[in-house]
Amino acid sequence: MRIALDAMGTDRAPATEVEGAIEALRELDSDIEIVLVGDQEAIEVELARHEGAPLDRLHVQHAADRVLPGDAPAAVVRRKPASSIVVGLRLQADGHADAFISAGSTGAVMAASLFVLRRLPGVERPSVATFFPTQKKPVLLLDAGTNVDCKPRHLVQFAHLGRVYVRDVLGVEEPRVALLNIGEEPGKGDELAQETYRRLADEPGIRFVGNLEGREIVRGDCDVVVTDGFVGNVLLKFFESIAQFIVGLLESELRRADVGVDLKEAFRVLDYSEYGGAPLLGVNGVSIICHGDSPPKAIMNAVRVAAQAVRSGMVGDTAAELARLRPDEETP
Amino acid sequence: MRIALDAMGTDRAPATEVEGAIEALRELDSDIEIVLVGDQEAIEVELARHEGAPLDRLHVQHAADRVLPGDAPAAVVRRKPASSIVVGLRLQADGHADAFISAGSTGAVMAASLFVLRRLPGVERPSVATFFPTQKKPVLLLDAGTNVDCKPRHLVQFAHLGRVYVRDVLGVEEPRVALLNIGEEPGKGDELAQETYRRLADEPGIRFVGNLEGREIVRGDCDVVVTDGFVGNVLLKFFESIAQFIVGLLESELRRADVGVDLKEAFRVLDYSEYGGAPLLGVNGVSIICHGDSPPKAIMNAVRVAAQAVRSGMVGDTAAELARLRPDEETP
Questions:
Q1: What is the per-residue pLDDT across B97-113, written as a single tens digit (0 to 9) for each?
Q2: What is the pLDDT of residue A265?
Q3: Sign of the CA dihedral A166, A167, A169, A172?
Q4: CB B213 within 8 A of CB B184
Q5: How many angstroms separate the CA of residue A285 from the nearest CA in chain B?
Q6: Does the structural domain B1-123+282-313+325-332 have CATH classification 3.40.30.10?
Q7: I need a surface site. Which of A53, B67, B278, B281 has the fewest CB within 10 A?
Q8: CB-based contact B266 A245, cutoff 8 Å
Q9: Residues near A262 by Cβ (< 8 Å), separated by ≥ 6?
Q10: What pTM was estimated for this model as a whole?
Q11: Chain B residue numbers touching A263 (CB-CB < 8 A)
Q12: CATH class entry, domain B125-273
């Protein structure tokens, strides 16, 4: 299989992407090939630094342009058709690649993915999903900020998108789906949560385990958590900053006490680079979004996850799952 | 001044409350008196354990009943009029106390406070506010879960409630008010956030500093953050659990490495017991809610905060601030 990797997305592009790609080809299954998409010259300079890189499985697709932080996400396809994001996604849409990965602007990757890959039938709102670390396995939360002012039916769709992803990519047989809420009992929460609860409880194919309060996320007693993108985004960004804050408090205390402990292992569970990026679910293809400050390891993990999504037939499974749902645009 | 303290609220009631009250009287200003409200016999047994307690400033008001976890909050005033929560609040309403503190059920304290103390004119929805630790000073976030499905005008009222509290109780001269949102620019967010932004930008008396993303809370660059109670509650509960989770990761790693470091100082900033409870704002009185698992220090800090609220005239100042707002029930 072939995975298109935007080489111009990270803060240290394309060095990080090239290093991550080489690491992935060395570590992961040998049926994986990677197409680095971006400034050919810059990519080749980076490739030359890595002796013995598996060049037979490493291709370069030139893209003359790149998306910059100031670019309006919605205008990228029209205004920057030669950008690495658009060129990489087109490789997949045209059948020259099976998946796309980028550490560029989340908004731009999303908008371009929607335009180039298109939504799957039955999906009104594709959704970016992210993993939260827990005491057990990481939990997939969606929506992570793509969709605000959601209706109950959107959250039900998120439940299906998340459930198929976790089953196919993580191998969880019957994923448990929970609704983020401000109380445990049915009937708790705002109007959206109350109505979504009723629908999820009746939804075929969904193993609904009920409401989940903010404090319970960390317990890891479910596999998928659905919520409106406003809540998901605030929570995700808060989590990333508070984790850093707490680790910082601690490191300065250990420094003060002059204690040399390597906390890398303890905090590995908090490290997003372990999770392989945030998938955009509900489009007709595999599109994975990584942090702009991803290290090579995060890129490698995104390749691993993308390959697993391709291998499992996640997109086809999602399409089949959503096709079973009656189109129901009239319901709120 | 006299502060009514529900002695039956904590998990180890009344021992914790009695200890916290004695500590407060010893540490804080000598014009403070405390009325312990609850089972007189149990309270006196506890008091007898503390030699040299300042009994001249420590009173007991018997309450024959107590609110239990299963009690429906809205029914407490009617069904348990002799509970320590209702009796304690009535002391304040009748002029025998200037403030009320409880570590009992948040819902019950809130419902009973609303009924007994009543809302201030101009306040449609009283709001529980809580402090979040930051890299600088703690930041007051409201609503913390009292009010869901808020309208923009409710969030504007929260802004006023929070601003007066922070100014009077924390002594911040011109508190900076931010709107929790999923992007920095105006126009970001869901419908509620977009319209609230417009209103806060024009609101007299509010020093509005714009949108604040989830990741920026921890920076502490504002004094008050307003948001809907759904978001606030999810965030607050998530924060408490994730802080515990991360500290736990760390402690087990340090144990494994056999390193004896006292992390108490490093994590002091994360410790809610430093913050003195969550005030219910917008009622005609001072009502402070503490965690059920509060240690005596948290009770003492709640007394400190309640005393400061009384001394500063917080309730009168809030009434004056809200009276300036035009009643505007028609606007969304």
A1: 999 999 999 999 999 99
A2: 66
A3: positive
A4: yes
A5: 27
A6: no
A7: A53
A8: no
A9: none
A10: 0.92
A11: 250, 253
A12: alpha beta
